[in-house]
């Protein structure tokens, strides 16, 4: 699939549709010979954040924020790429032909620690690849920054009007209330290992829960990384170090969603299954996850926040990917923007293997 030029060559300006394409490997910047968040190993990649549907190992060269590079080396090892180039927020680097370069600049995306929007500038054209982003306050990362551009590429994970996420504080109060009502039951919370897990722990601490939080082994390394980044998570104890699992009655245990129905969970005392995800607004999804207590906690924008972002960025063109493309494309068109689908294939954060 190639995007055709729009003919908007004003005084030598080249529209991004003339130098950004989509192929089987992903989103490609032709003059920089660089892919953005490719799903297979490539010679040169720009990585917006550390979730595995955006950050894969095996590239020859990687450009990412320093935190994203640390996340990738934590997950994949120091040799996750032959060369990696850390680029701090608002710092720029030139890619491609030195006489005709593409300028890359990262800006905060507010999704998880280290997450970035990638601004690419070439011959007067500006395109922002937002990656995944959210607009809610999150103490684990810098907030989303509005960046003016000609084309804004937005996700649409929750791109339907039905999705309206409640405050995280309200959802955490549901968990604390359940602990008081069922003090004899272990509360097993399914939460994505990167970003969501740490955010849930911090929300518990902010709500006054200062007891130890127990962790499935798959969550340990990334929590330790967040703590080295200065995010204080309080006392965390691996479940594997608890000899008497019955002592976990009335405690909070965090685990990957895949572990909720796994044999691993059977050793816990009468576990009450809890699932923290934006999808918990959909009852069928909660039943699918066998969640007794669904918590609507998301690291993505809900519908009003997607529309807020389109208004604030105010780019003439909006390219939509990863999610409910049709609804957001229609709404963007009603708002006066040119909009179209990229149809890049991703999987949902919470579905990533532990």
From TrEMBL:
UniProt keyword Secreted, yes or no: no
Protein name in UniProt: Ligase-associated DNA damage response exonuclease
SUPFAM superfamilies from the UniProt entry: Metallo-hydrolase/oxidoreductase (SSF56281)
Enzyme Commission number(s) of this protein: 3.1.-.-
Domain Metallo-beta-lactamase, first and last residues per copy: 8-185
Top-level EC class: hydrolase
UniProt GO molecular function: exonuclease activity; ligase activity
Keywords annotated in UniProt: Exonuclease, Hydrolase, Ligase, Nuclease
Organism (species): Alteromonas salexigens
Keyword Plastid: no
Matches recorded under InterPro entries: MBL, Metallo-B-lactamas, RibonucZ/Hydroxyglut_hydro, Xnuc_lig_assoc
Coiled coil: none
